[in-house]
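Lab notebook, bench 4. The sequencing result for the construct came back, and we need a structural model before the next group meeting so we can plan mutations. Quick request posted to the team channel:

Model the 3D structure of this chain.
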Amino acid sequence: MAKYYYSPTKQKILLLLATGLVVGLSHSSLASWRLVKNLPKALRDIDHRTLRRILREFKYNRLVDFKDEDDGTVSIVVSEKGENVAMRYNPDQIKIVKPARWDRKWRVVVFDIPEKKRLARDSLRRQLKKLGFYELQKSTWVFPYECLNEIKFLSEFFEVQQHVRILTVEKMSMDADLKLHFDLL
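Done. Here's the predicted structure in token form:
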């Protein structure tokens, strides 16, 4: 299967569709407005023309099929290929591929997520721990391998992307404990 990279927005749309979100398209602006009003906030914030463009791209890549309904709307059905791709973007299914050789760079994830988003902050921490990150401090996590796309996806999925920074560090003082932790000695 061809490997596609999708932006975090596209990943979220595909994941929401695969988990049973019903999105209908209509040429009627009143019907479209009613459908958009009932969408989750994550999709409501996406411009409807952008959403249509992304859905057409998914159809072109055979990730979704369009089905004409009797009431004039078009339903979107996720294909088997689309479900397989979407599962890669499920936060519980994300895995970071360990390369054969370490590039001797540290990936540092730093965040300062406000208290009002505590659940998202705790979920992000759990996911980082599950992925194998090392907690250097409460909101500073370290990992030795490339993980930019995965962290971007997680931060957008939990809607905290404006509070998360990802650094690539070539030199770090006193990193022997990290090398030992990640078995890089």
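Residues 24-36 have pLDDT under 50 and may be disordered.
Will bring this to the meeting.
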